[in-house]
């Protein structure tokens, strides 16, 4: 049952456009406003960014294009007199502003109720010292760390913990000010940067090389909890989640590891008292089931938007409804229209999120990736296999690449250094290393990327090598008619290989380039010829196959569609 006294709600948007902010939380705010309007609640939005969906006409009832800062928000509260406020839909900027409004007594002064997660629970997750103490109460492991308020305390903490360490700035967005330190000199430089973003800095023992896993968890006020999605970083700990390829659901966890971390995520969200949605991030030892909780975000995050779109579960929409007092069992999934919001999504497909950088546009910028975020966007690809989803995603990132293989030549001066120190081209460096003959064990030792992922990437390279074996036909293809050329490739061996290549994400362009067709005709013609081969051989996307079968067997249409879903 919702609180009927809530007639007008203020939602804090994500603030000015910059890396790690604004557009990344547009989805969350838009969904929350939609949920509130469905309840007949008058919505007020403060967001200075005009280039977002949530500031479009008709999404919110009233929009203020003003900075998300306490002085501006107080004046809006004084004028509009909202009954409630939502803090967790605008990222770190909105969360920090909401906490400050609470501390200054502004919310109490105007009798504004915080909807969803209480401010105390937000403080428990944002204040790194409090966070560790709260998780210690329930026996959940966190990274050995010390909260510091000046550089001298940072030096003392690093000496006690021992190098290497990582510095994290509290209340900071996108890992700002964070970084790994191997010695005193690096520590001093990193500490100065961290304190420029936050008054509190956490010094942690480095767990570089461990896996990074995330769970999106939802809880209602009746203490019902579900985990909507779990995700795994392609890169090991040490590279910000926003900089890493992320795969959903996790691919390298055992059943025991998956359920252990899931149970811990639910235990954490219940103990802290979050109402709505939160994101729990873990470091997992690849050699054992040992783990550490890195952080808990008591708000919608970049990962929440990915999880929503990957699973079809509208996390922000549901979180807004839970903030109004609904229970999970009272809500329908607004995407499926039939299942309850209490149902955990089950995926029979793989989703890959791949970040996009524009570092080449700036002179003198450091291309190395770390715990502070530099990416300016991301793409999401869906496939039946990891290889398919990855190759689709790499074609979409706008770097002129066609997948994991058959790309433009990449120049690498020092291969070992390029593998050891991640850059925005790391995935393509791995491709080049495999083609140069580096073993999976060598690449694993330098990158610490899980061998399961590397084996899947090697599978793509192997298919490419088998396709290249057919390039020998091209030496005499120039004198052949189109029909003769097609007959040369219409052997059972090639048709089987063509089908395998399509299943694992090869585009017609990649196949045409691999078999050497581009050397005897334009690439556009070559690509169209491969497409023609495919259609003649019946190698078509699943949807086309279903439609064909459904036309032949109309009585079994529903069964056919369900069997492919």
Task: Describe what is shown at a glance.
This protein is an alpha+beta fold and 565 residues long.
Architecture blueprint of SSEs:
Blueprint: E1 8-12, H1 26-38, E2 42-46, E3 62-64, H2 70-80, E4 84-86, H3 91-103, H4 106-109, E5 113-114, H5 119-126, H6 128-136, E6 145-148, H7 151-161, E7 165-169, E8 179-181, H8 184-195, E9 201-205, E10 211-219, E11 225-233, E12 246-248, H9 255-272, E13 276-284, E14 291-297, H10 302-311, H11 315-323, E15 350-356, E16 377-383, H12 386-396, H13 415-420, H14 426-436, H15 440-447, H16 451-468, H17 482-489, H18 492-503, H19 508-514, H20 523-537, H21 542-552, H22 557-564
Parallel strand pairs: 1-2, 1-4, 2-3, 4-5
Antiparallel strand pairs: 6-9, 7-8, 7-9, 10-11, 10-13, 11-12, 12-15, 13-14, 15-16
Task: Describe the fold and architecture.
The chain is 41% helix and 15% strand. Residues 555-565 have low confidence and may be disordered. The protein folds into four domains: 8-115, Rossmann fold (3-Layer(aba) Sandwich); 144-205, 2-Layer Sandwich (Dna Ligase, domain 1), CATH 3.30.1490; 211-347, ATP-grasp fold, B domain (D-amino Acid Aminotransferase, Chain A, domain 1); 402-565, Carbamoyl Phosphate Synthetase, Chain A, domain 4. By secondary structure, the protein is of the alpha+beta class. A hairpin with a 6-residue loop joins strand 13 (276-284) and strand 14 (291-297).
């Amino acid at each position: 049952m919702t609180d009927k006294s809530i007639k007008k709600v203020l939602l804090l948007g994500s603030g000015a456009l910059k890396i790690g902010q604004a557009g990344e939380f547009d989805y969350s705010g838009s969904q929350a406003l939609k949920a509130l309007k469905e309840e007949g609640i008058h919505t007020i939005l403060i967001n200075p960014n005009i280039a977002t969906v949530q500031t479009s006409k008709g999404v919110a009832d009233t929009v203020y294009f003003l900075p998300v800062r306490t002085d501006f928000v107080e004046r809006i509260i004084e004028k509009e007199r909202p009954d409630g406020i939502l803090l967790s839909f605008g990222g770190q900027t909105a969360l920090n502003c909401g906490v400050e409004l609470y501390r200054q007594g502004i919310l109490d002064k105007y009798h504004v109720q915080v909807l969803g997660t209480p401010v105390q629970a937000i403080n428990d997750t944002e204040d790194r010292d409090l966070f560790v103490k709260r998780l210690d109460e329930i026996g959940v492991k966190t990274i050995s760390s010390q909260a510091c308020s000046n550089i001298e305390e940072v030096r003392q903490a690093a000496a006690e913990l021992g190098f290497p360490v990582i510095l994290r700035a509290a209340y900071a967005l996108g890992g700002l000010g964070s970084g790994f330190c191997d010695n005193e000199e690096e520590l001093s430089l990193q500490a100065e940067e961290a304190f420029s973003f936050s008054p509190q800095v956490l010094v942690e023992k480095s767990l570089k090389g461990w896996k990074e896993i995330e769970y999106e968890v939802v809880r209602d006020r009746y203490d019902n909890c579900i985990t909507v999605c779990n995700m795994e970083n392609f890169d090991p700990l040490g590279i910000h989640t926003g900089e890493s390829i992320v795969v959903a659901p996790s691919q390298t966890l055992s059943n025991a590891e998956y359920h252990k971390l899931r149970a811990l995520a639910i235990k954490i969200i219940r103990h802290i008292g979050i109402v709505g949605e939160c994101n729990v991030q873990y470091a997992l030892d690849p050699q054992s089931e040992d783990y550490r909780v890195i952080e808990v975000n008591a708000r919608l995050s970049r990962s929440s938007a990915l999880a929503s779109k990957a699973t079809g579960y509208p996390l922000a929409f549901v979180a807004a409804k839970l903030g109004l007092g609904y229970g999970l069992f009272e809500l329908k999934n607004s995407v499926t229209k039939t299942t309850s919001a209490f149902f955990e999504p089950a995926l029979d497909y793989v989703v890959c999120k791949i970040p996009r950088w524009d570092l080449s546009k700036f002179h003198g910028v450091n291309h190395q990736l770390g715990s502070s975020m530099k990416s300016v966007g991301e793409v999401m690809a869906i496939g039946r296999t990891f290889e398919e989803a990855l190759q689709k995603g790499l074609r979409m990132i706008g770097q002129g690449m066609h997948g994991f293989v058959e790309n433009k030549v990449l120049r690498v001066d020092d291969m070992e250094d390029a593998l050891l120190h991640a850059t925005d081209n790391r995935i393509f460096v791995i491709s080049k290393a495999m083609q140069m003959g580096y073993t999976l064990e060598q690449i694993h030792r330098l990158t610490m990327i899980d061998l399961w992922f590397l084996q899947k990437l090697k599978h793509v390279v192997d298919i490419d090598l088998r396709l290249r074996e057919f390039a020998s036909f091209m030496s005499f293809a120039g004198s052949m008619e189109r029909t003769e050329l097609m007959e040369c490739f219409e052997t059972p061996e090639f048709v089987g290989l063509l089908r395998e290549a399509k299943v694992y994400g090869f585009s017609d362009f990649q196949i045409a380039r691999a078999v050497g067709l581009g050397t005897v005709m334009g690439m556009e013609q070559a690509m169209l010829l491969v497409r023609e081969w495919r259609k003649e051989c019946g190698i078509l996307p699943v949807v086309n196959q279903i439609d064909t079968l459904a036309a032949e067997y109309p009585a079994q249409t529903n069964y056919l569609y369900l069997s492919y879903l």
